[in-house]
Amino acid sequence: MPEAIEYERIGDIAVLAANNPPVNALGVDVRRGLLAGIERAEAEGARAVLIYGKGRTYFAGADIREFGKPPQDPWLPELCARIEASPLLVVSSIHGTALGGGLEVALATHYRVALPSARVGLPEVHLGILPGAGGTQRLPRVAGTEAALDMITTGRHVRADEALVLGVIDEVADGDPHEVGLNYTRELLESGASRRPVSEMPAPEQVNFDAVYDEVLRKGRGQISPATAVRAVQAACESESFDAGMKRERELFMDLMASDQRKGLIHAFFAERAVGKLPELQGVEPRMLHQIGVIGGGTMGAGIATAALLSGLPVVLLEMSPEAAHAAKGRIEANLSGAVKRGKLSQARYAEIMGSDLKLATGYGALSNVDLVIEAVFEDMDIKKQVFAKLDEICKPGAVLASNTSYLDINEIAAATKRPEDVIGLHFFSPAHVMKLLEVVVADKTAPNVVATGFALGHRLKKVTVRAGVCDGFIGNRILSTYRTCADHMILDGASPFQIDKALTDFGFAMGPFAVADLAGLDIGWAVRKRKRAEGLDPRARDSSYADKLCEAGHFGQKTGKGYYVYEAGKRGGVPNPEVLPLIEAERAEQGISPREFSDEEIVRRYMAAMVNEAAKVVGEGIARRPLDVDVTLLYGYGFPRYRGGPLKWADLQGLPGLLDDIRKWAAEDAYFWQPAPLLEQLVAEGRTFDDLNKEAS
């Protein structure tokens, strides 16, 4: 087995080459190898040390396999201090990425050269921590306080050309990182360059740190790691010595390590990587995908087509009339033009897509040769069944037939065909070319290689893909329906939509449920309510009609300019609609309800308990295979605050016994809605957590 750090002597230069594929992560073997290499170079009388990475990158960051385990010597802060203290000239040659601890090692060296394609950054805030090996102390000294604050609090990756301007690197040169590094190190030696420890540079300039802290906390919607990092950079500017600043960085780092937010973000990090790894798909090859079809060119269909085209998949888009097809083309053009403006798509590629990759059609015959077709037509079972019966006639054998339904029964849709094994749900989230989540809904007869094809498509489209079983709403919308019902109950009992939205955005949600309803369109919820009433509501279920009255008046939210909020052209967000509260008050009077006050804390507790309880039912019934599948669904499709890890991670951190006690207490006032999930009762009885179930499934 090769050494994690390979040592080579070339003249006066000791070369330390990282060889820890795939990304040269800074695991304990790499850290020990770097320390040993520095010591050997000094003992052998070298004049300089060059550090670079073999393979595709310099050190891309920490070794995720060490997360949550006791650190082993040498710790990265001590290693960086030792590298910097070397009497030799120490140089980094950077290619690929130098992220997190990788950039901290580079900043501990005396000079840095990078290939033009290299990127650097300190993304630790995304894991709920801050750079803990001197990043908050060294980066401001080379890049200045404002640039360092921007890089550290956003965690963004900075390209080599920008890093050169900022002073993070000293030179950009093209070529092989080994040769580039050697040439640069030789130039330094020949010019008589001296050591240049960043720790000995003057303290960086001060800024208004209190104002920066408040703004970063506001932008992060309560996430504490970026704001805490501001205080660490402040220590770089205000401490009487570099060592004192390092001490403060370490204190703040340890505070974050102990926080629930760090636990939530680490859980989200690993859950996202685990969600697509399903035992049932091991060794199952997906079907080939050369071309796909999309039926329906509205907002959703056009978004799905855009996502596929951006991934390099040719698309046949079917609409019912030339006029509708022309409108769909316009939506796709607008989506792709946005990608061009953001630098995600070249003008030449845009022209190629619109010229040859997108084909518009008004007859089903155009779909006869596609490998997979996704229908995105109106959410009506009869219409869906008609579409699938037609696809059964037209599509070639082996083509995957997918529905983008949000709620409807995939088994019933599949029964409209003679090949139910080819039918699957692919539930995209709008706008489909932007939203990261894809639910792959597996029906009773769906073939394993069709499931594998759904996941392969999700991967190609750069989606976070979750497996779901068949029920009303699958994972996400089923849980949404329940916690949204909880919010409706609190409104009947005395809360307002606007208080609920504010309490939940203060909790960290991107938007509150009523603002979300306005964004999605109130007609969607109206259609679901009418369908459920037509199917027959349980007489014990509480119902209300005030939201229906908004819809009856033509108020569907943002698309009509009025819903729970009133929206003005050119203005972000809306203001509360004054027509809403009188409708609610009339509803309460009609139902004989005396309103009471709700605290923000009670709103959040009830809303979250309803979410957790329904999620536990979803896992207990096997609709979601693991709790982490629920967490990833809510994180990527429903604006759940990432730093809380997802609803079931949040529940674990809150304590399941207390949540179950609250649910049982509220069941005394509404036994139908607050029925404790059997899985939640079982976990509490056994003293276990949702995360225990994740570990058992891994």
UniProtKB/TrEMBL annotation:
Report the InterPro entries cross-referenced here: 3-OHacyl-CoA_DH_NAD-bd (IPR006176), 3HC_DH_C (IPR006108), 6-PGluconate_DH-like_C_sf (IPR008927), ClpP/crotonase-like_dom_sf (IPR029045), Enoyl-CoA_hyd/isom_CS (IPR018376), Enoyl-CoA_hydra/iso (IPR001753), NAD(P)-bd_dom_sf (IPR036291)
Q: Identify the residues that the record assigns to the 3-hydroxyacyl-CoA dehydrogenase C-terminal domain, covering every copy.
A: 473-567, 603-688
> Which controlled-vocabulary keywords does the entry list?
Fatty acid metabolism, Isomerase, Lipid degradation, Lipid metabolism, Lyase, Multifunctional enzyme, NAD, Oxidoreductase, Peroxisome
Catalyzed reactions: a (3S)-3-hydroxyacyl-CoA + NAD(+) = a 3-oxoacyl-CoA + NADH + H(+)
Concerning Pfam families, the annotation shows:
3HCDH (PF00725), 3HCDH_N (PF02737), ECH_1 (PF00378)
Give all residue intervals belonging to the 3-hydroxyacyl-CoA dehydrogenase NAD binding domain: 291-468
Instruction: Please give the CDD domains that the UniProt record associates with this protein.
Output: crotonase-like
Localization in the cell:
Peroxisome
Its pathway?
A: Lipid metabolism; fatty acid beta-oxidation
Signal sequence interval, chain numbering: none
Q: Which family does it belong to?
A: In the N-terminal section; belongs to the enoyl-CoA hydratase/isomerase family.
By what name is this protein known? 3-hydroxyacyl-CoA dehydrogenase
What is the native source organism of this protein?
Ruegeria sediminis
Upper taxonomic lineage: Bacteria, Pseudomonadati, Pseudomonadota, Alphaproteobacteria, Rhodobacterales
